[in-house]
Every structure is written in C-alpha cells, then in structure tokens.
Design brief:
With 284 residues, the chain is α/β, with parallel strands linked by helices. The protein folds into 2 domains: 86 residues, Leucine Dehydrogenase, chain A, domain 1 (Rossmann fold), CATH 3.40.50; 123 residues, 3-Layer(aba) Sandwich (Rossmann fold). Helix content is 42%, strand content 16%. It has a 6-stranded parallel β-sheet. Strands 3-2-4 form a 3-stranded parallel β-sheet, with helices on both faces. Strands 9-10 form a two-stranded antiparallel sheet. The longest helix has 21 residues. The chain starts with a strand and ends with a helix. It binds NADPH dihydro-nicotinamide-adenine-dinucleotide phosphate (NDP).
Amino acid sequence: MAAELLDGKRLAEEELDGLRDRVDALKKRGVTPGLAVVLVGDDPASQTYVRNKGKACEKAGVYSRTIILPADTRQSHLEKLIDELNRDPEIDGILVQLPLPVGLDEQRILARISPEKDADGFHVLNAGKLLTGQATVLPCTPKGVIAMLKAANVPIEGKHAVVVGRSNIVGKPAALLLLRENATVTICHSKTPDLASMTRQADILVAAVGRANVITADMIKPSAAVVDVGINRVNGRLVGDVDFERAFKVAGWISPVPGGVGRMTVAMLIDNVVELAAARRGRA
Ligand code: NDP
C-alpha cells in the first residue's frame, strides 16, 4: 500500500488563486493588502524564503516591499524601522525573517511589531490569544499543516496527534491547533526518552525537528498521516525529517519535502496578510 500524497504545492496554488479573488474584492474597495518583509544579513536560505514570499504576493495581487539590511544592523535601527512600518498605512503585515544575526534580540523585535500587523503570528499577544482560544492571526506553518490535513479529509477529532518539536514557531502552535481540532496531543522533544514508542501511537505525526531521517518507517503507525515540516540539506539535496521513500509505504498520507509544508507556509502568510488588511481596513 502506498500513502496518499499531501501535495502542498498544488494546494498552495489553489489557496493563492482563491486569495487573488479576495484581494480583487478588497481592491475594488480601495484596499490593496501590503506586506513588508525585513531581511537582516545575507543568509542564502533566508534570501530564498524572502524571494518566494515576494513571488507569492505577486501571484495573489498583494503589494510587497522587501527591506534588506546589513548583518551588523543595530537593534535600535531595526526597532525604528519596525515603528515606521507599524505607522505605514500601505503596510498590513510585517514579517521579520528569522533567524536574526547574533546580537539582535529576536523576542524584542517580534514584540515591537504591532499585533495588528503581525503577519507571522509570532507576537506574544497573538501567541497568548491562540493559547487561550481567542480568534487571532495564526503562525503560518502550523496553519498550513492543519489546512493540508483538512484538504485531504484526514480525520483529526478524537485522533492521537504526536508533534515532534516544541519550538514557539512550529511545534507548540501546531500542538495547540491540533488540540483546537479536538485531537489528543502529545508533544515530544530532544529529552523524550523513547521517541519511537511515542510516534508509533500517532494517528497524525507532525515532524518539526530539523534533522534528516529522525523519523524512520518503523516509527510510523500503519495508515497514519505524516506531516513533515523539517527542512534539511543533505549533500546539496533538500529533505525533510522523515525517511520519505520508506515511510511512503507505511503511512496513509504523507507530505513531501520539497513541495509540502513549505509551500503551504507561504500561502498561509499571504492569507494572514489579506486577513489583517480586511480586519484593519474593512472587509470586502
Ligand atoms: P527548532 O530548532 O527551534 O526546534 C526543533 C525542535 O526539535 C526542538 O523542540 C528540539 O527539542 C526538537 N528535537 C531536536 N532533536 C530532537 C530529537 N533527536 N528527537 C526529538 N526532538 C528533537 O526548529 P523549528 O521548530 O524552528 O524548525 C523545525 C524544522 O522545521 C527545521 O528543519 C526548520 O527548518 C523547519 N521549518 C520549516 C518551515 C516550513 O515552512 N516548512 C517553517 C519553519 C521551520 P528541544 O526543545 O528539547 O531542544
């Protein structure tokens, strides 16, 4: 038996097409949603992500502005820029590409972004709203994970979801969103003693570690849905956290890398910008 592919590339294209219609409706009311992306330094992976975000904005008809700053940018300079973007009427969403160069205080920068313009959903106020079950802008990668599962009609309610990874941007919010969908959720991390015994219980397995092959086929329950968030470069090739070739034969559904969660993350970012524009400047 082979798994059904959770095709993030196709789904993201559909999402962006749908967003284009919503953007057109907003434009008719004089509102062009706008995203500002701030990139500090010259990390090649970050440059690629920023380029992809710009392309997705173009596809959906969203205005985008990329601001590139040198790696030795001072905290005060970056904070001043964010203050300006917070006030800028053309900008509905602000994204600071992570990781920031050493020496910049990431948490303070994220907290400086107005919660109403928090395109990534990383502001502590929005994270708190998610935790307490209030409507808020959602972190893009976990939002994409849920969208992929739902698009494939993967049952979530009452199922056991195991999330491997507990970062603030992926693992924890993914667990909260699965909980919100009424899954029973287990979170694993680097101190979990017997990871395989946990993952083997998962009806839904989300791998967000950042290590190639940390999830092997024998760690997957037959017919489970496996969502691979990891992005790793092995001998110049992009791979996820899951041994895809073998896992494909065991899982019921599986997302590939590339062409999976990464694509959906970008589509969900644009979705957030459109939501923020509609909330701040009036719904179409
Ligand atoms: P972090 O490094 O912040 O978190 C990694 C998590 O994995 C930590 O919680 C860590 O545990 C856990 N971990 C590390 N080793 C093990 C292990 N051997 N067994 C179990 N758990 C382990 O990474 P992120 O959450 O930011 O990202 C995770 C991956 O997802 C990366 O590859 C990243 O590139 C990718 N990513 C992909 C995106 C996409 O769009 N597809 C978007 C964002 C990230 P502990 O907390 O104990 O250290």
